[in-house]
Structures are given as C-alpha cells and as structure tokens.
C-alpha cells in the first residue's frame, strides 16, 4: 500500500493538486481493519461516493489512489468482497 505522500504526489503530477482529504477518507478505516479496509471504499462505488462528496476532480484523485493500491485496477465492490471472502455490509466499523 502506498503512503500518503505517494498518493498526494501522484495527484499533483496528474491533477495539479494533492487531494489529501480524498486519500484520508479512502484510508480512514485502515487502522481498524488493516488491509481489508480497501473492501469498504477502494472500488467503483467508493469513487462515486467521493464524486458525490467532493466532485469530479476528487473522483479522479480517488481513481488514482485506488489504481496504485489495487495493482492498476479499479475493482467493483463484488470483486473485493470475493477477494476478501467477507460480506463487508455485515461488518460495522467501531464508532469513536
């Protein structure tokens, strides 16, 4: 998995902006779920969630982030569920 600085550099290079808030949101559940955090937001639906929150450019930043973390691909939620072998809808992140 790429570090925050790598994600931000990728976006600066391709979009001219860091989009740190997008990267933070995509990786928000990492501490709680480890690598499985990707099953929640690192997919096509996650990109659309970013688009609805912050617009088209932010969605492009999400695509860049996800491609780096998922070996050049943007998986569907179903592909990630199959990969992790869990139904993420049944997992509730711990609340603060």
Please describe the structure with a list of short key phrases separated by commas or semicolons:
96 residues, mainly alpha, 62% helix, globular
Overview of this protein structure:
This protein is globular. The two termini are 25 Å apart. By secondary structure, it is mostly helical. It has one domain (4-86). It has helices spanning 4-15, 20-26, 30-33, 38-41, 44-54, 56-69, 77-84. The mean pLDDT is 88.
Whole-number count of domains? 1
Secondary-structure element series: HHHHHHH
Low-confidence stretches: none
Tally of DSSP β-strands: 0
What is the C-alpha radius of gyration, as a whole number of Å? 13 Å
DSSP helix count?
7
Report the sheet with the most strands, covering strand number, pairing sense and barrel closure: none
User: How far is the N terminus from the C terminus?
Assistant: 25 Å
Short description:
This protein is mostly helical and 96 residues long. Helices cover 62% and strands 0% of the residues.
